Amino acid sequence: MDASSLIALFGQETGVALTLNEAGTASLAFESGLALHLEHDPQADLLHCYVVLGQAPADPMCRHDVFRRMLAANAFGRDTEGATLGLDEITGEFLLSRRLELPRTDTAWLRATVESMAAVAADWLRRLDGTARDVAPAPAPGDLPPDFGLRV
Length: 152
What we know:
By secondary structure, the protein is of the alpha+beta class. The chain has one domain: Yope Regulator, Chain: A, CATH 3.30.1460. The chain has helices at residues 3-14, 60-74, 107-129, and strands at 25-29, 35-41, 46-55, 84-88, 93-101. Strands 1-2-3-5-4 form a 5-stranded antiparallel β-sheet. β1 and β2 (35-41) form a beta hairpin. The protein is elongated. Pfam families: CesT (PF05932).
């Protein structure tokens, strides 16, 4: 399915008039204030789904801690439900993103992705502003997890 048709059908199903603009993007605003963006990449035949989570901290120690937590969350999609946390080096913004291959995507998959992304983004916004903690406490430097070992 092409990106314009997918977005239009998704909009019809959700009761919101939704179309890609001339730049190939559409944004969904949630009551919580969260904005989720859909961006069509015609060369790769993809739809990028992303949320801007905010600016990277200026303080190097705080930035290091946030980067560590985000990398840990990305491992096996542990705290991202398959999305990826990243840094836009140009803007300095943290992003939660996911790629949808259009030939494999339908409105049900898009809906599930949007719902998942909104929930994960809301969780990470609370983690970044300090109102929620990560699921597992960070290990002390040099500490190994109790089940550390090599498996063959």
